[in-house]
Amino acid sequence: MSDFLDAVLTPLDYVVSAPLLAWHKIFSAADPGWAWALAIVGTAVTIRILLLPLYVQQLRTRRELRKLEPQIKALEQTYGHDRELLAQEQMKLLKAVGFRPLISLIPLLLLGLVLVVLARMIDAVDKHAAPGESFRRGFLTDGDASSLSQAKVAGARVADSMVDHADSDAAVLAAVLIAVMCVTHVIAQRQEAAQLPAPVMPTGVVEQKRQVTLYVLLVAMAAVSLVLSIGVLIFWATSKLWTVGQQRLLRDEPGSG
Questions:
Q1: What are phi and psi of 98, to 5 degrees?
Q2: Is position 257 within any domain?
Q3: H-helix or E-strand spanning residue 131
Q4: d(Cα 108, Cα 114) in Å, to the nearest integer?
C-alpha cells in the first residue's frame, strides 16, 4: 500500500515543490523563517489559481440552477408537506439536467492531495535534514531541506506540530491558524448556501443535516490539525481565506445572478 501511495504522490512532489521553491526565491531577502512561510502562502495561492477554472464551472452550474426555480417551486407546492420527499424530488430534477454533486468535490479532493503531499514533504524534511545529508523530494535538495527544517515563524518551527510541542510557541501559532481555518470554513459554507436559488437552499430536515455535517467537519478539521505541521496549517489557512475571497468575488461578478 505504501509503495502504491508513493507511486501516486511522488509526481505531485514536483507539482508542489516547484512553486514552493519559486516563491522562496522571491522572498529570499526576508528572514529565512518568513521566507519559507511566505513561500508556502504563495504556493497555496498558486494552487488555488490553477484550480480556479473548476470553481468557475461551479459558478456556472449555480447559474443553471437558478433557471430551474419555476420547476423547483412547483415541486415545493406538490411535496411541501414532506421535506424528505421534497429533497428527493429536487435531486431527481437536478440530476435530470446534468447536475452532479460529486463533481463539486473535485477541487476539494485535489486540494486534499496537495495537503497530503506538502505534509509528507515537510515531514521528510524534518527527518532527513542534517547538513550535507543526501536528500531529494521533488525539486527540494538537501540544502533546501536543511533551511526549511530550521525555519521559524513567531518562534515556532515550520516543521513543528501542536501535538508534539504542546507547551511551545508552535502550539500558540497552531491554535491561531486552526481558529482562522474554522472561522473561514463556516463563512465559506454560509456564502455557498446563500448563492443557491431560494427554493434549493436547505430547509427543514435537510438544513438540520447540513448543520450537523458542518460541525462534524469542523471538529474533524480541528482534530486533524493537531498533528499537522505549522507549514501545512499555513497552507490550509491561506486556502480557506482564498475560498472566502473567491466566493465573494465570483458572487459579485457581473451576470452571476
A1: 95, 5
A2: no
A3: none
A4: 10
- pTM of this prediction? 0.81
The answer to the question of residue 256 being in a domain is no
Q: Where are the beta strands (DSSP E) in 63-216?
A: 136-137, 140-141, 152-153, 156-157
Domain for residue 45, yes or no? yes
Count of alpha carbons within 13 Å of 5, Cβ hemisphere only? 6
- Residue 169's alpha-carbon distances to 7, 74, 248, in angstroms, are 36, 57, 33
Task: Using CB atoms within 10 Å of the CB of residue 5, give its burial: 0 to 12 exposed, 13 to 18 middle, 19+ buried.
Answer: exposed
Quote the number of domains for the chain.
1
Beta bridge partners of 137: 140
Residue span of the structural domain in which 131 resides = 2-251
2-32 residue pLDDT tens: 677 778 888 899 999 999 999 999 999 999 9
Closest by CA to 170, choosing from 103, 112, 228, is 228
Give, in order, the Cα–Cα distances in Å from 87 to each of 84, 94, 119, 157, 194. 5, 11, 39, 48, 17
Residue 8 lies in a domain: yes
Lowest mean pLDDT among 118-122, 205-209, 244-248: 205-209
